[in-house]
Automatic annotation (TrEMBL):
Core-binding (CB) domain location: 60-159
Protein name in the entry: Core-binding (CB) domain-containing protein
GO BP terms in the entry: DNA integration; DNA recombination
Pfam families in the record: Phage_integrase
A molecular function (GO) term: DNA binding
Length: 361
């Protein structure tokens, strides 16, 4: 990783600032480099990351161990920008806990309950129960389970890569365990598998029970009633943000996810405009499965657009507002995203853009 990029503070965006503490930041359009000793310069490796998180200590310096771990997730495990951001926030939370309690990663006294890892676990559980006076927000069970597992993986990375060794560990930060879990496969048969765990592990919240008025899709979702839709549309009409209006109208009328809506391209609209109608006044388009429009887990799917909505979208991509935004963006007027911020940035970076940027290097 090129340290020079980590220290170019003008490229950082504030993630959040609370109580004057410098917190998680990110580098936009990060490109990995390697140092060429013979040429005495940094060479780009061709690896691209749309948003790269940096964990800063309260004094404003980079937490080097966190940076090494995050780069390991990016390069060795090929994790997405979204997951890197989550990992950065998890490590930041652990760092802030240590700073608040004047601890470090090697604070591992004989008494297990006093070790930094177990104290952090206890703090997470307490924060789940109530609001803390120091400004921490209440967090859910799945989040604290994720965070403590992240810290175990972080320690494992540090030990494996000899960032610190077992000789520096007065006592174990945790004990690794093997657990058997049982689950039902697609055919309804009970299966068993062995997973790695630790004595720090916090069980996740039980899955929500499927009900007749909800959809189980990662979380329990309730479709809007007709009355709720009417109220929502009235607020949309009152808004002067055309991008917000169109994004919400697509979501309401097609059921598409925000990921799919925000990776919609200009050519997708143009092609639908000249395609044949299906199901009366609708036109269809395929998403996911290698198409230009992304979908969750890249699952192939078909969504249907009403012709009136397509007319609205076609008018927007021919408007002065869209043209002005596109001139500031990566694709300019070459099959750009339908929806861009006023600075010309996409609301969601598509898989295709990541590939295009890699091929450009």
């Amino acid at each position: 990783m090129e340290l020079r990029k980590l220290l170019e503070m003008d490229k950082f965006d504030n993630e959040c600032k609370k109580e004057n503490k410098i917190e998680c930041k990110k580098i936009r359009e990060y490109r990995s480099t390697e140092y060429d000793v013979e040429r005495n310069e940094h060479i780009e490796t061709g690896e691209y990351c749309s948003s790269y998180p940096i964990v800063l200590k309260s004094d404003g310096t980079v937490w080097d161990k966190a940076s090494l771990y995050i780069d390991f997730l990016r390069s060795d495990r090929n994790r997405s920008s979204a997951l890197l951001r989550t990992a950065g926030n998890d490590l930041l939370d652990f760092l802030r806990f240590m700073e608040a309690n004047n601890l470090n990663m090697l604070h591992l006294p004989i008494k297990k309950a006093q070790r930094v890892t177990f104290r952090y676990r206890h703090d997470l559980l307490e924060r789940e129960k109530e609001f803390k006076l120091n400004g921490h927000k209440k967090i859910g069970r799945n989040t604290i389970s994720q965070r403590i597992n992240r810290i175990v993986d972080f320690y494992e990375f540090c030990i494996e890569n000899k960032i610190f060794t077992f000789t520096e560990l007065d006592n174990r930060p945790y004990t690794l365990l093997k657990k058997r879990i049982y689950f039902e496969d697609e055919k309804g048969f009970t299966q068993k598998k062995v997973v790695r765990s630790s004595d720090l592990s916090i069980p996740r919240a039980p899955r929500a029970i499927q009900t007749s008025d909800s959809i189980k899709d990662g979380r329990k979702l309730h479709p809007l009633t007709e009355q709720e839709q009417s109220i929502f549309i009235s607020y949309l009409k009152a808004s002067n943000n055309r991008v917000l209006q169109l994004i919400c109208l697509i979501a309401l009328t097609t059921g598409a996810r925000i990921q799919s809506i925000c990776t919609l391209r200009v050519n997708d609209i143009k092609n639908m405009m000249i395609s044949k109608k299906v199901k009366g006044s609708f036109k269809k388009i395929e998403i996911g499965g290698g198409e230009s429009i992304d979908n969750k887990n890249d699952k192939k799917y078909i969504i249907f657009f009403h012709t009136e909505l397509l007319e609205m979208l076609n008018n927007y991509i021919n408007s002065e507002e869209w043209k002005e935004r596109s001139t500031q963006s990566y694709y300019k007027n070459k099959n750009n995203y339908v929806f861009l911020t006023k600075f010309g940035e996409p609301f969601y970076t598509s898989r295709k853009e990541l590939e295009d940027r890699k091929n450009r290097l």
